[in-house]
Amino acid sequence: MRFLTAGESHGKGLIAVIEDMPAGLELTADYINNMLAERQKGYGRGQRMSIEKDEVEILSGVRNGKTIGSPISLYIKNRDWENWKDIMKVKAGVSTPGIKLPRPGHADLCGILKYGFNDIRNVIERASARETAIRVAVGACAKRLLEEFQIDVLGFVVELGAIKTNIKKMDFLKIKYAISKSKLRCPDKNSEIKMIKKIDLAKKKGDTLGGIFEIRAINVPLGLGTYSQWDERLNAKLSYALMSIPAVKGVEIGLGFDYAKNFGSAVHDKIFYKNSRGYYRLTNNAGGIEGGISNGEEIILKAVMKPIATLRKPLSSVNIDTKKKSIAHIERSDVTAVASASVVGEAVVAWTLAQAMNKKFGGDNIREMKENYKHFLRNIAK
Questions:
Q1: Bridge-partner residues for 300, per DSSP?
Q2: What's the chain's average pLDDT?
Q3: Which of 102, 166, 247, 290 is most buried, judged by most C-beta within 10 A?
Q4: Distances in Å between the alpha carbon of 117 and those of 27, 96, 123, 229, 276?
Q5: Is there a contact between 317 and 184 (Cβ–Cβ < 8 Å)?
């Protein structure tokens, strides 16, 4: 399984093409749209979210509500395109004034130097986090596949603006319920109240906030990924997927960087066995992955998102034409988007797990894939 995306932030729309999705999988636009709606929520989002209402159109690969084995093509229309027709026109003509003031922390300066542009708009349009909308649509297709195997993936906020949550006594289902009632996909109500106040303060100051989101996946079978090649390790693939999200600067798996604070005897998950249960562990510091392979425990990942690079009170920069000191360009943006990033994280993790499931148990149709999966479970049960 693989996919490609295309489209600019203020172009006509965003497109994705998915290859090798098994045939016979029930898939509807409404299912995908539910996840797209989650991405657009979150206290601290900007004006763009009030303009767009992301809805997907399935252009191919699905017939009578089920996948048919051919490439699935998805399209999300940009409603704001109507206001950007002249700026984003495809045909040659009179050009609009270009953007000359790169934003610190963004792809602006690196992008124009790499591609030889004299207008930062060319960089902004594709480097924008707007591209993640179509990746969430792709991730929703992956989640639909994982549901056939009772695998569920959940993304939520655990820290924002240095305010941390307390979720030690909350399991997957409790967290899922709590974030459904939250403005920030935060399962800790007391922490959420403090986060909202911090967001209001940042908005008043013309500043932005980052944070940490967590992704959990339950019922993931043992055996996804491998240690045999570096690029096939499941932990590597999951880290790669999360690091591909704009503004993400670090990833942890399980105990993560806290491994460095303890002796090995205190952090490695002891292995036990019962005839009625098979192999099991009482702890999950490994985050569900050992040696690049899923071990049957809950997969737990964290990613840190830096504060958004567009500030209402911009930082110092340099005009790329005159080379004179100036202030950075201001582009319409959010105060914070950690909640939205958690949905994107959920999507890319779901895709990576679905890809691994397809490689391990793959068939041309969902029935065949399920039979392969059941056969594997019977074998390891012995």
A1: 216
A2: 95
A3: 102
A4: 41, 14, 8, 38, 64
A5: no
